[in-house]
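[job 4471] stage=fold_predict status=RUNNING
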Amino acid sequence: MSTLSTYLEDPVLSKLYTQVREAGAVKSISVDLTHECNLRCKGCYYFEEGMDKIVDTSANLDAAFKQFLDSEKERGTNFITIVGGEPSLQLDRLKMVYDNFKMNVATNGLIRIPYEGFEQMPIGVAVWGSNETDAELRNKGKRDLFSIALDNYKNDSRAFFYYTVSPDKSEEIASVVEKCIQNGNKVLFNYFSDIHNKKDIAGYRAGFENVRVEIEKAIQKYPEHVLTTSYFNQVITTGQLYDQHWGYDVCTNVSTNFEPNQGRLKNGNPYNPHFRSYNADFKTTRRCCTGIDRSCDSCCDAWEHFSWILINMKKHMGTKQEFINWLTSMYMFYYINRIITEEEVVLTQVHSLLNSGIIAD
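[job 4471] inference complete, writing structure tokens
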């Protein structure tokens, strides 16, 4: 019977696994840095779910934010995902997070986060398709947002484009990826969620088949620039992880102090025991990063699915290839978020481990 020690006899796997373990466990939370935004993107979960209505109106919210960070540091938090609202509108708060935690930030790209003072910050810059598609979905075609973001983050080593792909826009993937790479940036794929849950979810996921194919082509062509692995691409587009099908009962990033989640925490499926998703009042939490009331079945969020894979290590121990599927996902998550750093050649190496096409279901 194969064991972890057997798999780690492979020097490449041993190197990646050692780097991950030496970096240590991630005790993460998600924080809405602000309830304000300078865009209203179509289908944005933040506004569709009314999360922008939850805000502390006290006179000194920055002081409350500092107190909140101190409390989380004392609780053992060592990693924060910053969302919103638009975080670039609150650079002082962003700086407080950067100076005290490992972190990443998602931004719409309209306002450049300065390099000075944020030199090692992982920045996910939103793009939702071609210049025309991106503009239409994110500001009703009024401005070319993609071009603005490209200019703001040209050759910025901190920034990767967080490319949210719709199932009916697969033909745009190649050209969008090429623009990002020519701009000096990497690409991580996100997958547009059916936020209103108006469609058959299984059918909606099936619509990502062509998206999956085009992303695979991008991985093969630009392995040193694409931050999405083949295995991750398969899991998120199918919503299937071994015997589990994606939904609330298996989501691993649910706020553990949120009373309505207590039934989920007791159903026997693993979860992140430290995780909380904080609203912009820095006090209350909600069900998860991306939802309050909507069906979790409709969520195709990349970060949630990353966690689903990573916490289910035991499911991936049956064969060496299954272990590779898990380890490359884990390594890529740590790499994206600068929890570990390595030369770029390692990305090519990570992708090559999956090139055999033997990806376990």
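[job 4471] summary: The mean pLDDT is 91.
[job 4471] exit 0
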